[in-house]
TrEMBL record:
One of its GO terms (molecular function) is hydrolase activity, acting on carbon-nitrogen (but not peptide) bonds, in linear amides. The keyword Protein transport does not apply. Its EC number is 3.5.1.118. It catalyses: gamma-L-glutamyl-hercynylcysteine S-oxide + H2O = S-(hercyn-2-yl)-L-cysteine S-oxide + L-glutamate. Catalyzes the hydrolysis of the gamma-glutamyl amide bond of hercynyl-gamma-L-glutamyl-L-cysteine sulfoxide to produce hercynylcysteine sulfoxide, a step in the biosynthesis pathway of ergothioneine. Pathway: Amino-acid biosynthesis; ergothioneine biosynthesis. One of its GO terms (biological process) is ergothioneine biosynthetic process. Keywords: Glutamine amidotransferase, Hydrolase. The lineage of its organism: Bacteria, Bacillati, Actinomycetota, Actinomycetes, Kitasatosporales. InterPro entries: EgtC (IPR017808), EgtC-like (IPR026869), EgtC_Actinobacteria (IPR032889), Gamma-glu_amide_hydrolase (IPR052373), Ntn_hydrolases_N (IPR029055). PANTHER family: GAMMA-GLUTAMYL-HERCYNYLCYSTEINE SULFOXIDE HYDROLASE, GLUTAMINE AMIDOTRANSFERASE DUG3-RELATED. NCBIfam families: ergothioneine biosynthesis protein EgtC. It comes from Streptomyces tabacisoli. This is Gamma-glutamyl-hercynylcysteine sulfoxide hydrolase.
Amino acid sequence: MCRHLAYLGPPVALGEVLNAPPHSLFRQSWAPRRQRHGTVNADGFGVGWYADGDPVPARYRRSGPVWGDASYADLTRVVRSGALLAAVRDATLAGADGEAAAAPYAAGPWLFSHNGAVPGWPGSLASLVPALPAADLLSMEARCDAAFLWALALHRLRTGDEPAQALADTVLDVAAAQPAARLNLLLTNGETIAATAWGDTLWYLADPGGGTVVASEPYDDDPRWTEVPDRTLLAASRTDVLLTPLKEPAE
């Protein structure tokens, strides 16, 4: 469920990355090619981006389908950035959170997205609640599984974990509590990207000219797209991509 994408590279109009490619994230909202769970990503969308000289990203999120939002079309046509994270949300159960449940989630310099699901939520992750300070639980943006995963990862970031380690440890803790969880996580601070492939597709495109895209699926048929194996941690910059296998949690 869901599709997401992060980009680091030369400044471009957001739409060049999100809308222009033939199988863009925009098109994936109704016609994904590699989505294994769900078929229509119409229950919200969002894009976060960084402006020169400001480490705190801006966001534009809505609760409806991206194809019906004229303001999104204008925004992505004129706003330029060298770093962004965007997501379209799979059709899901009705809830009161609306826009707040749409990725990317944000705190300080960070943008975060979750592609996947946690069966049995929220009871299946009740054992992980004591790992979070009460203030972190009370300040969650939404009451969905993705927001809770973000709270877990953000707590690790705030206590000093590197981005890739924060995602890896979050995935292993959640998978131990709910082995059926699908946990493709995506995180950026505008300078690096960290991601996990755990139960769904993940790909990356590294341009020798100095750009990196990490996405749920390729947005075009460029042969340089590389699939990330399942149970893998990805750490990327504008010029390098490092893949590290993730071990299954201990029984």
